[in-house]
# Entry
Amino acid sequence: MQERSGGHSVLGRSLTIGLDLVRGRRRYRYAGLGGRGDHQIRSGPSWRGALVGALVVVAVALGGPGSASAARLYIAVGDSVTGGNGATPGHSFFDLYCAYLESAAGGSLVDQCVQAGVGTSQSGLDSGTIQKVVNEIQASTDTPVVTVTLGAHDSMEIPACLPITGSGCMFMHNMRTILNELETALATHPGPQVIKWLEYYNPNHDNPFGSPSGDHSTAVGLLGNDLAFTDCSSEDLSLIGLDDAINCIAKEKGATPVDAYTPFQNNCANGDCFADSLHPNDKGYGLIFDAFRDTPGTPVPATPAPDTNWPFAVPVNTLAPAVTGSPKLGSVLSCSAGTWSGTTPLSYAVQWLRDQSPIPGQTRSTYLVQASDVGHAMSCRVTASNQAGTATGTSNAISTKAVRATIYALSETRKVFAPSDPHHKRGTVFSFRLDQPAEVKIAIELQAPGRRVGHSCQQPTVSLRHKPPCTRTIPIAALIEHGHAGLNEIAFSGRIRGRALNPGPYLAVFTAVNRAGESKALSLHFTIV
# Structure
């Protein structure tokens, strides 16, 4: 923190935490309160290297040695532009604005001016810098004005923040959080108080130390593809740059955006506004001071305005997800995501439902119908997510019902065989296919000669010797096997409960059984020798 009480302070490069300096007859203290120091900003031709840092003006006092608590404060929270890099002593915008706010021309609003160094917006929150600012606001007599410079390090150090609307970039969320915390703290005083957030100038425009080839790309990074301040109702991310984000979020939260972009575009044609590839000289800082002084401050609200999702649109389900497929045991159902509006990219998560209740672990886009699903309504729920939030859509429901299984492709490896014994592996192998899982009943029947009487085939007797011959089927045993969808193979030894079948012709009758009933029976003939 650099603290100033009366007169003009000389704000040069940020100093080590706790180091006191005496320059001339002025005493200064820098209390580094968060993030990376301003000295870490690097010049370069790229948009990321060219960003300097947004400035937010807020009146606050920071605790620590030489605390300005109980005074009327102006606090500047920010990076190397707030630190005055490139300015001669007494000519940074912080110096000029501090002197103005102390003077009668500025309304004699403040007694002391304080500066706090911040790197990225996230580091300002994580390190406790913003909280210390909040504490000092609450401890001061009043805090009429606050200035903050944030955003440059977000763009330079966080790949997701190039562009500022990039997926995973937290700058806009953090800006809202910081403004909410500052406005809540300022509400503890009678007011009015203002928070002014500076919109960037283009350091590659009319800058002899900059990169002319980076002029356009830097302008796009600041203002979007339209190279103009975007209507805050727009959700076209290609038109939204860092300055657009600062402008619209500041207005949303009741703070005051301050335009430094236009003054630098209009007044630096002679290349006389910069000290290096990033920082203004005395003339440039004068333009920033003029922008702060001449932009009327809007008093911040006593209660922060609710956050919005701008510029991101939450997902909206415009065409419901759909379940397709055959609703029978063993079949595969598919869940389509449906159609969604909202800021892209959108990600989707699927959850399968049985009677509207989630089925644990079933989160793929396809689902194999299980026995436990039969008789229940199957559907899926799709959750769409993007930077603005999440939304869900539920599909149509398909009632699953038991369908009789079908047995087919019946065959055997041997038609004539002897029963197996401990010394000889004989018998046969029955093969068949099922269209779905089912129990398979195999009825083993002996085929014996008989005489037909009416519609029945009876055991031959002397009295029936003149009746037409027929073949009787005598039930021997019924075997039950658990069949699965597809090919099934069952070895048959020719023995029933350990006893060999007597020689003769036999019939094996196959029936598939499930909750829907029995399938059509199919049979194989074999002979035991």
The domain at 407-528 is CATH 2.60.40.10 (Immunoglobulin-like). The first strand starts at residue 2 and ends at 5. Residues 1-68 have pLDDT under 50 and may be disordered.
